[in-house]
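During the reporting period the student researcher (J.K.) took over the structure-prediction task from the postdoctoral fellow and processed the backlog of single-chain submissions. One of the processed entries is reproduced below for the supervisory committee.
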Amino acid sequence: MVKTYDYIIVLKKKSYELIDNISKLMLLLALAAFIFDSSFTLYYHNTKLTTSSAWLLVCITVTILAWWSFCSWQDRRGIIPYYRFALMFAAWGWLVVPSGLWIALIYIAACFIEKPVKVAPEVAFDDEEIVFNSFPKQRYLWDAVNNVVLKDGLLTIDLKSNIVIQKEVNDPVSPDLEAEFNRFCQS
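J.K. obtained the following structure tokens:
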């Protein structure tokens, strides 16, 4: 059953540059390894891989490059790029490479973690709790909260544990809605 909240506040988006750069670095390392392994097998007849495995690595390399190009195009258009499909193909490629199982597991983990980490930051409020949709989710019961105030585009949550959380709101909030929200939080 899906829970509905009385108020959902969208926070300013953070930069995903670090996450994207880590994904790109992982893809670059995979591409270098796949090109090296497949070229040695196809051109020098090295026995490390079979010829069919080497051609599979070539196909995976082309697929990764195509998805990376698509992600670059998305980024130029202002849309958040998701490298997870390229990471998934890279994990598949690491499974083809002998002794690549552990590296493949790291790529699979990165594939599944990328999207939840890039979710738009929101804070949801209802009568029972405050929930941040971060990874991992953060929940605060109202018993643990001293005060919540939304003022001038800044959401402030004062916890009883002497922790103050301040986040910028993404869109301007009308004074009427701001007052209504603050009354809700006071009650």
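The committee noted the following: The mean pLDDT is 86.
J.K. will present the remaining backlog at the next meeting.
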